[in-house]
Amino acid sequence: MNRYSGAVLVLSGPSGAGKSSLINKIFSEIGDSYFSISTTTRSMREGEKEGVDYFFVSEEEFQQDIQEDLFLEYALVHGHHYGTSLKPVREALAEGKLVVFDIDVQGNTIINSRLGDITTSVFITPPTLSELHKRLLNRSTDSQKVINMRIANAKREIQRVSEYDYLIVNDDLDKAAELLKIIAIAARLKVPNDEINLFVQKWEDM
Ligand code: 5GP
Predict the structure, then answer these.
(1) Domain coordinates of the chain in residue numbers?
(2) Helix (H, G, I), strand (E, B) or coil at 88
(3) pLDDT, tens digit, for every residue of 64-78?
(4) Are the C-beta atoms of 4 and 93 separated by less than 8 Å?
(5) Which of 8, 13, 68, 101 has the smallest CB count inside 10 Å?
(6) Where are the beta strands (DSSP E) in 78-182?
(7) What is the mean pLDDT of the chain?
(8) Confidence (pLDDT) at 143
(9) Ligand 1 touching residue 147 (CB < 6 A)
């Protein structure tokens, strides 16, 4: 990808970790940012809105977008496809924004390989697996089968927590939000490798 003046903040962690609540809580306090809305083939949950939570598409439409190379990254999660569209991300980065992604561990690997020098990654989790189970049950938007799948996936994902720059244990929303805010503000200070080289060249002015 080309040179950008923006930066990237990747948030991963099991559904039920509180990623959306956290990001909503801090969004107005972290400067000019763009939250990347993913495209998915999973069906809409109660309370979700098209174009706000996701762009909901059929498997055929998703495959078409893959063919047309429209995704920065995509992955199969819990049996459904999820993908990040390249164009709005590119535009937001060119405008110097902090681009925030809520994506899984597979997505984090790809973002790091493509935009690693401007990426900061955070894994967000409830304190324990049983707490996660409780939250998913309380949310009551998913069937038992879906909850079991999410628990199994969470057990797999937590094994890859060392691939992230930071870990936030979300047992207190206010405290977790404060930590995420600090990380988001610092994330913006990451400078792309080529800009560092230019800076060093200019700095050596004698
Ligand atoms: P949910 O179905 O609970 O909204 O999301 C399930 C999982 O998919 C979450 O871990 C979320 O981070 C991940 N996810 C959402 N959008 C994307 C995306 O565009 N790419 C990838 N790789 N994962 C995504």
Answers:
(1) 7-36+97-203
(2) helix
(3) 999 999 999 999 998
(4) yes
(5) 68
(6) 80-85, 98-102, 119-125, 166-169
(7) 94
(8) 87
(9) no
Asked whether 77 lines ligand 1 (CB < 6 A), one says yes
- What is the 82 CA–ligand 1 centroid distance (Å)? 6
Separation of alpha carbons 135 and 109, rounded Å = 27
What is the residue with the minimal CA distance to atom 11 of ligand 1? 103
157 touches ligand 1 (CB under 6 Å):
no
Q: Which of 9, 11, 19, 38 to mutate to test the pocket of ligand 1 (most atoms within 8 A of CB)?
A: 38
Q: What CATH number does the domain located at 7-36+97-203 have?
A: 3.40.50.300
Check residue 16 and give its pLDDT. 86
Report whether residue 65 contacts ligand 1, using a CB cutoff of 6 Å. Answer: no
C-beta separation of 183 from 166 below 8 A: yes
What would the two tokens of residue 60 be?
A: 């055929």
Q: Which protein residue has the closest C-alpha to ligand 1 atom 15?
A: 103
Q: Is 38 in the pocket of ligand 1 (CB under 6 A)?
A: yes
Is 96 in contact with 5 (CB distance < 8 Å)? Answer: yes
Q: Give the number of other CB atoms < 10 A from CB of residue 4.
A: 22
Report pLDDT for 94.
Answer: 93
Flag whether pLDDT at 139 surpasses 90.
no
For 127, the token pair is 């304190």
Pocket test for ligand 1, best of 23, 103, 136, 164 (most atoms within 8 A of CB): 103
Q: 198 in helix, strand or coil?
A: helix
Q: Please answer whether residues 39 and 55 qualify as being in contact, where contact means their C-beta atoms are separated by less than 8 angstroms.
A: yes
